[in-house]
Amino acid sequence: MKIKKILNNNAALALDDKGNEIVYTGCGLCFQKKIGDEIDEGKIEKTFVMEKPNEQFKQLVSEMPYEQIQVADEIIKYAGDMLNKRLCNNIYITLTDHLGYAIERAKTGTVLRNKLLWEIKNFYKTEYSIGCHALDMIKEKLGVTLPDDEAGFFALHIVNAELDGNMHHTLETSEVISDIVSIVKYTFNTALDENTLSYERFITHLKYFLQRAEKREYYPADNVDMFNMMIKKFPEAYKCAIRIKSYMESKFPEEITDEEMLYLVVHISRITDRK
């Protein structure tokens, strides 16, 4: 593999047999190298294949300190292992870039407050725990201590990569989930036990519920008899689901189906069960 462009002393750009751009990184990978030289495969530590040219990523790799790129890569790998899923490749840009600016802020004593930290802690517990682990890695490997707010920001980048969406959508999703939980609390005039499995399932259901709303792909109404039975058995949960329906239809144009209402009633009845 021959070097097409030297990004810095630790990163090189090359082309594979299909013409895809590949960014190789490794400590001293391009030391005393020039364009057209063969890449020393023994020094390659990470390979990034880009089906479409991405100038932003190449610029990021060329400008950021190599050790920061290494740590960002370790955080992303840890996140993928913890979630047992492949994350959207865009996270290599967004999270790495965020890490660089977070370190710059820390060095100048600037703290960026995360206004959604409570929502992130409660609605994306796994991702937040990954964010906290990321702070430990950054402190250990880079000697920089970041505030808890940054754990929340890292968690949002991970959630965004899970959903393969954009950060605006991820932030909006967090706000909508918070509003729906507030509707449940208001309807039943009670606090919810956030440490129960039922609550965790409800939050997970809401995440995918919002994805379906965004795509206008609500579940079709297939369980009419079950739906009628559940609204009679759990009238308060159904009353709450009606309020959620009204709220959702003010946000998204598609009318919520009875099938979606059925699932809402089931989850609401579980998390508000006082027995």
From TrEMBL:
Keyword annotations from UniProtKB, A to Z: Repeat
Span of the signal peptide: none
Protein name: Transcription antiterminator BglG
InterPro entries: BglG_antiterminators (IPR050661), CAT_RNA-bd_dom (IPR004341), CAT_RNA-bd_dom_sf (IPR036650), PRD (IPR011608), PRD_sf (IPR036634)
Taxonomic placement: Bacteria, Bacillati, Bacillota, Clostridia, Lachnospirales
Database matches in PANTHER family: CRYPTIC BETA-GLUCOSIDE BGL OPERON ANTITERMINATOR
Single GO BP term: regulation of DNA-templated transcription
All residue ranges annotated as the PRD domain in the record: 63-168, 169-275
GO MF annotations, alphabetized: RNA binding
Pfam families: CAT_RBD, PRD
SMART domains recorded: CAT_RBD
